């Protein structure tokens, strides 16, 4: 290409238009700024991501040893859906969760649940198809729907009702283009855990409108105060369920990228969709083999997560401490999470008049060296929330919450709302 002076110019290479509505602010622009600050020598307290290993939560030793022992067997491709033994272990786990009718062929292993989420959307959606996604959500879901050519339609999770999905809002948003509903339970970012009665209402809507239910249950063992988790797919056999889980959180094995997807329920009328899943599974050849070898040992071994979330457990202590410190700050409220690893506090708009919550996160980072994720990064409709992990040990967590409190005190003074 020549410009008007006859000199060759380079045409810019632009990203695909499919990415126009895709964002993942958990690792977004604010994190890039934090990396720049680290390069300049600043120490950043990172409360932005549930990466357990960096906070001293190690994978169970028996999982590590099993991967080491099997490394010699892990250099070749596996079956496209995964090795037999871990898939059988997952099948048995679905039986423990009372999910009926699951066979080995219904279990797909992936490079983390994230890969399988994107795959499940790619196999389903055409332009114009809609998927109901919670707001706030784990943003990969919204991104996966958009990237697959579909339209994410966000249904309200009501903070005043403990962050439970608003069934009436879901009903209003179902139309002829709606193909599926996503349910994140236990919930990221709010920590909500849904009761059976609510789950049954969602299943009934799916039944009435012939929707696929995508159940993200990656935190199903990270439960506090004696809570128990019910798998959505255990509540019906006449609805198609796609259930996602993995080792990342329950077994502190984020980097192993060992996740799975289970197809259950009304499979008879979904043969073509399942064929699409099989095609995409084959195209990526297989999930990483070393991570697959960790699954059977993890599911069948000692469940050390119970020690972390039970009375006296480290995660329970840190949840209670983070909640106490956050809600002691003027104008900050937070529904206490019953599950997962996060707080999703609300800032009273009268005291914190935030117009741009990404800029708010930048300011906190610049002033106090604390990295959070703004609420709109989770498709929260208003800029008055943010998410923090409560993974640092109690001393570091106290320091981090103290810095947030100091920043918010200065924010109120600057805006005359103290």
UniProtKB/TrEMBL annotation:
<keyword id="KW-0808">Transferase</keyword>
<dbReference type="InterPro" id="IPR004839">
    <property type="entry name" value="Aminotransferase_I/II_large"/>
</dbReference>
<dbReference type="InterPro" id="IPR015421">
    <property type="entry name" value="PyrdxlP-dep_Trfase_major"/>
</dbReference>
<keyword id="KW-0663">Pyridoxal phosphate</keyword>
<dbReference type="Pfam" id="PF00155">
    <property type="entry name" value="Aminotran_1_2"/>
</dbReference>
<dbReference type="InterPro" id="IPR015422">
    <property type="entry name" value="PyrdxlP-dep_Trfase_small"/>
</dbReference>
<dbReference type="InterPro" id="IPR051926">
    <property type="entry name" value="Ala_Aminotransferase"/>
</dbReference>
<comment type="similarity">
    <text>Belongs to the class-I pyridoxal-phosphate-dependent aminotransferase family.</text>
</comment>
<dbReference type="GO" id="GO:0008483">
    <property type="term" value="F:transaminase activity"/>
</dbReference>
<keyword id="KW-0032">Aminotransferase</keyword>
<feature type="domain" description="Aminotransferase class I/classII large">
    <location>
        <begin position="43"/>
        <end position="401"/>
    </location>
</feature>
<dbReference type="InterPro" id="IPR015424">
    <property type="entry name" value="PyrdxlP-dep_Trfase"/>
</dbReference>
<protein>
    <recommendedName>
        <fullName>alanine transaminase</fullName>
        <ecNumber>2.6.1.2</ecNumber>
    </recommendedName>
</protein>
């Amino acid at each position: 290409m020549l410009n008007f002076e006859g000199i060759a110019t380079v045409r810019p290479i632009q990203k695909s238009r499919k990415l126009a509505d895709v964002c993942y602010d958990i690792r977004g622009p604010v994190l890039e700024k934090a990396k720049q600050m680290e390069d300049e020598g600043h120490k950043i307290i990172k409360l932005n991501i549930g990466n357990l290993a960096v906070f001293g939560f190690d994978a169970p030793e028996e999982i590590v040893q099993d991967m080491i022992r099997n490394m010699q067997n892990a250099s070749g491709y596996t079956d496209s859906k995964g090795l037999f033994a871990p898939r059988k272990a997952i099948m048995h786990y679905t039986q423990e969760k009372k999910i009926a009718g699951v066979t080995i062929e219904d279990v797909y292993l992936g490079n983390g649940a994230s890969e399988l989420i994107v795959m499940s959307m790619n196999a389903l959606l055409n332009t114009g198809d809609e998927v109901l996604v919670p707001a706030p959500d784990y943003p990969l879901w919204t991104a996966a729907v958009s990237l697959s050519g579909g339209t994410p339609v966000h249904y309200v999770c009501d903070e005043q009702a403990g962050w439970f999905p608003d069934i009436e809002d879901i009903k209003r948003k179902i139309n002829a283009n709606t193909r599926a509903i996503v349910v994140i339970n236990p919930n990221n970012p709010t920590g909500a855990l849904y009761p059976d009665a609510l789950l049954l209402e969602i299943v009934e809507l799916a039944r009435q409108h012939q929707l696929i239910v995508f159940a993200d249950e990656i935190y199903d063992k990270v439960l506090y105060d004696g809570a128990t988790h019910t798998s959505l797919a255990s509540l019906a056999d006449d609805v198609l369920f796609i259930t996602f889980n993995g080792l990342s959180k329950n077994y502190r094995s984020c980097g192993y990228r060992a996740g799975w997807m289970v197809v259950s329920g009304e499979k008879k009328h979904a043969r073509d969709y399942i064929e699409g899943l099989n095609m995409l599974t084959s195209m990526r050849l297989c999930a990483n083999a070393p991570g697959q070898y960790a699954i059977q040992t993890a599911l069948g071994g000692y469940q050390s997560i119970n020690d972390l979330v039970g009375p006296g457990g480290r995660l329970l202590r840190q949840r209670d401490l983070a909640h106490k410190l956050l809600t002691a700050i003027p104008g900050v409220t937070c529904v206490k999470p019953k599950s997962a690893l996060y707080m999703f506090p609300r800032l009273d708009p009268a005291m914190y008049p935030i117009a741009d919550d990404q800029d708010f996160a930048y300011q906190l980072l610049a002033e106090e060296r604390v990295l959070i994720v703004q609420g709109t990064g989770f498709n929260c409709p208003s800029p008055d929330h943010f998410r923090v992990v409560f993974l640092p040990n109690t001393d570091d967590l106290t320091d981090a919450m103290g810095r947030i409190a100091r920043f918010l005190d200065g924010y109120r003074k600057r805006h005359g709302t103290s």
